[in-house]
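Supplementary Text 2. Reproducibility record for the structural model of the 137-residue chain.

All settings were left at their defaults, and a single model was retained for analysis rather than an ensemble. We include the record here because the model underlies the residue-level annotations in Supplementary Table 4.
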Amino acid sequence: MRRFVLTCCFCLILLAGPALAEPMVTVDLNKLEPRESACRAYLVLENGTDQAFTAFTLDLYIFGPDGVITKRLAVDTVPLTPGKTRVRPVDIRDTTCDNVTKVLLNDVLDCADAAGQRDDCVGFTTLSSHTSAEFIK
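Retained model, structure tokens:
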């Protein structure tokens, strides 16, 4: 009987897990591509929330192999439609891709939805990287 109860509890946890997960905006540093006098970063953004964002500007810092900040970028990513995935190419000027070893999401400078300005956007943004560069917050 005890095993049956434990099994039922486990099943309920598995079923409730996705429902308890908070909606997120995911940003993936998907690709770094050499360009003439720049490194093009491809950001893949997925709006997993039920809100359309009218503003969502990322404050990014680029670090070189020595751990020193080399660039700061403000990247406008709108429109961010609920359930939609989009790609945003960003040129990091005067930088080669092998000099991009870490990208820091320092803040979301401007964040707004239909209800107005928000100040909680960093908290529900998750990051990943398909490149050799770390993507952190």
